[in-house]
Structure formats: C-alpha cells, structure tokens
Amino acid sequence: MRWLKENSLSLAFLIMFLLAVGGQAVAGMLQYNDQQAANGAEPVSLVQYVASSAFAVNVAENWQSEYLQFFLFIMLTVWLVQKGSPESKEPGKAGAESDEDQQIGRYADADSPGWARVKGIRLWLFSNSLGLVMGAVFLLSWLAQSVAGQAAYNGERLGDLRDPVSWDAYVTSPEFWDRSLQNWQSELLAVLSMVVLSIYLRQRGSPESKPVGAAHTSTGVEG
User: Which residues are listed as membrane-spanning (predicted)?
Assistant: First the structure.
C-alpha cells in the first residue's frame, strides 16, 4: 500500500493512458471498418487495425506533438522567464545556474546521484538528460509518424488509382504538415495557457499552482 501511495500519480496516468489507447483503438477500428464497408472492402479485426499504418500514424502524430511541447518547455524555461508564473524561474535567475545552485561537483549532497559528482561528458549528459530524452522521443515519434503516414497516405492514393509518393515527397506535403501543425498549435496553446493563467488563478494543494495567498507577482513559487 505504501508503494501504491508513493507512486499513485504515475500509476493513475498510466492507467488512464492505457484506457485511452484502448478506446482509441476500438473507436478507430469501428470508423475504419465503416469506411471499408463504404468502399466495398472487407472489415478488419482489432489486432489487424492496431498493426496498421492508419492506427500507427494517429498515435505517433499525437506523441510527437506532446514530446515537442515538453522539450520546448524544458529548454526554453532555462533561459526565458514569466514574472508571476509558478512555471517560471524568478527574473534574474535565467540560465544554467551555478554548480552550487545545481548541487553538482563538490557541492553535491550525500544522497545526490553519482553522476552529479563527476566531471566531463558524464556530468554534461546527466545535466541535460531530461531535455535529451524528450528531444529524442520527439524525433523518433516524428520519424514514426512520417513512415506510418506515408504508408497510410499511399494506401489512399492507390485506392484512388494514383501513384504512391516517396518519403521525402510525403514529409514536404500539405498532408503531413496539416497533421503536424494542427497538433503543435494545440500543445503550444495549452502551455501558454498554463504559464499565464497560473499567474492569476490558483488550485489549492497542487504543486502546479502558487499557494492561494501568494501574490500575483510571486514567481517560481509552488503550492
């Protein structure tokens, strides 16, 4: 029970994620089979649909936009500030900060991670590991979206008796960028809303909000 309580936030999101993916698979299959029936084609099973490029491109295009959002937010908040937002550093503290502030090298605590005490490439990698992983997942998701999207797009073109397109032609096509940008704009708007609204609005008890009584101008303060 203690383990469940200490990991309840990640477990709750994991369960909701799995339910959402399962729901997306079932709904997507039903929609796909409806289109198949309209075209006089055979319906597919849930397993066949999940293994198809149609499902893969829908999943990958959402993943890449989410991880792009996190990557940009992580990296931009190193250097940019928003006065009054708990999602920002205080004005004047922009940048990578000192070794003492970051508790690395000789300033590391007894329980600091081992790589926080070393120097050179290992320290650099650990110091930037969150941004590197988020950026890598974004790029891999983007690549997966482009490959699956090309396959799905060519399937539609062949059904319309048109020639298939190459990968480089697909990633420069309006189809690809319409899929990408409609997701990017929503993710960027969500981050903007969180940064700005958290200046003036509160959610008691949430670490994503300032304490209820904190001044609107308080920056980098979490409840």
Answer: 123-144
Question: Which pLDDT score is estimated for 220?
Answer: 83
Q: What is the pLDDT of residues 133-169, one digit of tens each?
A: 999 999 999 999 999 999 988 988 887 788 899 999 9
Does one domain contain both 137 and 209?
yes
44 and 57 assigned to the same domain = no
SS3 53: helix
- Name 56's Cβ contacts closer than 8 Å, sequence gap at least 6: 144, 148, 152
Other Cβ atoms less than 10 A from the Cβ of 2: the count is: 6
Instruction: Assess whether 46 and 149 both reside in one domain.
Output: no
Once rounded to an integer, what is the mean pLDDT over residues 31-54? Answer: 90
- End-to-end CA gap in the chain: 26
Calpha distance 127→124 (Å, rounded) = 5
Query: Which three-class secondary structure state does DSSP give residue 86?
Result: coil
Q: Count of H helices and E strands in the chain?
A: 9, 0
pLDDT of residue 223: 66
Residue 62 and residue 64: Cα distance in Å, rounded?
Answer: 6
Q: Quote the CA–CA distance of 23 and 4 in Å, as a whole number.
A: 25
185: tokens are 């704009």
Hey, what are 203's tokens? 């959610």
Q: Is the distance from CB of 205 to CB of 223 less than 8 angstroms?
A: yes
Burial class (CB in 10 A: 0-12, 13-18, 19+), 149: buried
